Amino acid sequence: MFTKKRVYLDVAAAAPVHRKAQEAFMKALAAYGNPSAIHEEGRAAKNLLEEARKRIARHTGAKPEHVIFTSGATEANALAIVGLIQKRRKNGTRKMHVLYHPGAHASLTKTVLALKEWGVDVEDIALTSGAVDLSGLAKQIRKETMLVCLEALSPETGMRFDTRG
């Protein structure tokens, strides 16, 4: 019936696993030791974890001690966003402003909206026809703006946001 090869395009929630990622995952599955333990299995697991941390740091230009592993986007976004606000509050900053894309993933939007309870001024990023309005965004940034939360690529729609200006 169909003469052409089928192509899978529904990668919004799941995509085929790259061969190298699958190999690394299988290697990690074999390392069942607690990386905090001092026994042989624990040391092997810790070495695997630390090698991954160094590799990620090297590829991203970060320091290995700044690479933090989380269970997913919700935990990662909360850690980054809330961590920044808490650090600024601890350092005495009282007036804070955060801009965010209202169509971003719920792990980002819900975390940002929760900041309102701490007195953070939260504002939607200016959009024009669904795209980021860079001139409008520039006007929204003010002295107390701590963070601009924007996905470069929407996992929900596949829309790419060009923020290079």
Describe this entry's structure for a reader.
By secondary structure, this protein is an alpha/beta fold. It has helices at residues 19-30, 40-60, 73-90, 106-114, 134-140; strands at residues 97-100, 121-124, 127-128, 131-132, 145-149. It has a 3-stranded parallel sheet, covered by helices on one side. A hairpin with a 2-residue loop joins strand 3 (127-128) and strand 4 (131-132). Helix 3 (73-90) runs parallel beside helix 4. It is flat and about 55 Å long. The mean pLDDT is 88.
Arithmetic mean pLDDT? 88
Tally of individual helices: 5
User: Which range does the strand content fall in?
Assistant: 5-15%
Structural class determined from secondary elements: alpha/beta
Per the principal axes of the C-alpha atoms, what is the gross shape? flat
Spatial strand sequence of the major β-sheet: 2-1-5
Quick one: biggest sheet? 3 strands, parallel
SSE succession: HHHEHEEEHE
Task: List the main descriptive attributes of the protein structure presented here.
3-stranded parallel β-sheet; alpha/beta; 5 helices; 5 strands; 10% strand
Short précis:
By secondary structure, this protein is an alpha/beta fold. The protein has helices at residues 19-30, 40-60, 73-90, 106-114, 134-140, and strands spanning 97-100, 121-124, 127-128, 131-132, 145-149.
